[in-house]
């Protein structure tokens, strides 16, 4: 039995928006850094108002927090803390209004010449795993005693990678009922 192309495209779109949203709120590498190979300046971030250039000398490290970047209202709107996959359809989202924001405002796999080489593999592996889980367990629910917590308020462990701080208990059912 073949899948109609529009359904396939919608499924791919749905998966992409879910993946983009999950990686936006929970990037696998929440904090990162780079070391300057030559003396340079960052265009803004200095001075009392944060709008002046910042000098970065050769050999200095620059740390950045992808976790915080992905929750910035000036990039993702006033509801930036919320899990809303449909936000990627909003062409008026601030992230899309500026070339620098569009190129550097979403970095779950970093960007530029140091973008993660495993990005495609990671997305394909995650897709495969989720599809196989849903094929086996079409009904996935939170356990009755598991309380819903707003994104960003739940306990998290942030080290080199990000993990749930407390357990996340789900109930998997092999039947759709």
What does this structure look like?
This protein is of the alpha+beta class and about 180 residues long. Helix content is about 30%, strand content about 20%. The chain is built from 5 helices and 8 strands. The protein has helices at about 5-25, 65-70, 75, 100-105, 120-135; strands at about 30-35, 40-45, 50-55, 60-65, 140, 155-160, 160-165, 170-175. It has a two-stranded antiparallel ribbon with strand order 1-4. A two-stranded antiparallel ribbon has the order 2-3. Strand 2 (about 40-45) and strand 3 (about 50-55) form a beta hairpin. The longest helix is centred in the N-terminal third of the chain and has 21 residues, at about 5-25.
Quick one: overall form?
elongated
Radius of gyration: 19 Å
Uncertain spans: none
Order of helices and strands: HEEEEHHHHEEEE
Q: How many helices does DSSP assign?
A: 5
Number of strands: 8
Kindly state the mean pLDDT as a whole number? 84
Helical content stands at: 25-40%
User: Proportion of β residues?
Assistant: 15-25%
Q: What structural class results from the helix and strand content? A: alpha+beta
Widest β-sheet, arrangement of strands: 1-4
Largest sheet: 2 strands, antiparallel
Say what oligomer this is: single chain
Distance between the termini: 24 Å
Secondary structure: elements and pairs:
Blueprint: H1 5-25, E1 31-35, E2 40-46, E3 52-56, E4 61-65, H2 66-69, H3 73-76, H4 99-104, H5 119-136, E5 139-142, E6 156-158, E7 162-164, E8 170-173
Antiparallel strand pairs: 1-4, 2-3, 5-8, 6-7
Features:
177 residues, alpha+beta, two-stranded antiparallel sheet, 8 strands, 20% strand
């Amino acid at each position: 039995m073949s899948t109609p192309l529009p359904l396939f495209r919608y499924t791919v779109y749905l998966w992409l928006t879910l993946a983009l949203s999950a990686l936006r709120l929970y990037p696998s590498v929440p904090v990162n850094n780079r070391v300057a190979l030559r003396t340079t300046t960052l265009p803004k971030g200095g001075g009392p108002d944060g709008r002046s250039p910042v000098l970065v000398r050769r050999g200095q490290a620059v740390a950045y927090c992808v976790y915080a970047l992905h929750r910035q209202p000036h990039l993702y709107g006033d509801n930036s803390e919320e899990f809303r996959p449909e936000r990627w359809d909003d062409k008026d989202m601030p992230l899309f209004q500026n070339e620098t924001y569009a190129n550097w405002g979403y970095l779950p796999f970093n960007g530029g010449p140091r973008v993660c080489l495993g990005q495609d593999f990671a997305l394909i592996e995650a897709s495969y795993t989720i599809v196989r889980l849903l094929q086996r367990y079409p009904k996935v629910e939170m356990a009755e005693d598991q309380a819903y917590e707003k994104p960003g308020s739940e306990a998290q462990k942030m080290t080199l990678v990000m993990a749930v701080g407390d357990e996340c208990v789900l109930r998997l059912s092999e039947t759709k009922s």
